[in-house]
Amino acid sequence: MRWVYAVLMIGVEALGRRLLVAALCTGIIAVTPMAACADTPPDPQVLFERALVRVHETHVAPYLQYDLSMALTHKSLTKTYAYDVIERMADHTGRFTSLTADGSDSDDVHIWKTLVSPGLFLNAVAQALPSAPADGPPTIGRVVSVPYRATLVGEDGAGDCAQAYHLALRPTSDPDLHQLREIWIEPVSMRICRATLEKRVYIISRERVDVTVDLGPGQFVDHYHLAGKGHTPLGTYSLAVDGSFRDVRNVETIDPKLFR
Predict the structure, then answer these.
(1) Which domain holds residue 8?
(2) Do the domain assignments include residue 36?
């Protein structure tokens, strides 16, 4: 009978390990990192919500200042631009100062709305997660409703992450407001490495553009690719932009006259 008892105990121990791994990977028991769950696919909704909470804790000042380099391709012609930008985060208005060939500021200044900026992804997250409560940062237990349904596509590299969970996102309400469509989450740190968004912008007429953004460790966008099509009475043309941001910094106060 001893061998029967031994077999039963081995079976109970194995079942216990499987239940523990399942609890870890579905979020019943919360631990970090989640990479320990390699044998059981993680719950994509839990992954998504935890990653949102982590991003939501990123501090963003009333203004961001950064250098922007971009290559705009329009009707098969490509032009490059470089700007020093001060962005007012309240309404995403930017003060764009053109940079000369040696990288210094010129006298060419424009006030434009920012289509893509280092804080673009953080703004999209703010629309998906409630504000932090007064007594501290948000926790996943306080998240009542996230307006996306997440599914796991697989695991692959993205941006500066050698391995990441790749999630597809379906908005559960107002797809024009909730613009996220895919994200890649680094398993150990739970930071988001890459995301795709679907935006509606005016290119002569209101058009859809697809935006892919790579995010650095601070969760600010450091590179992006935008692609879309414009329609005119003379036909359809393609539009593409590749851009990168450097020296991104928070600015708490600034002279309001700079935006006049």
Answers:
(1) 1-31
(2) no
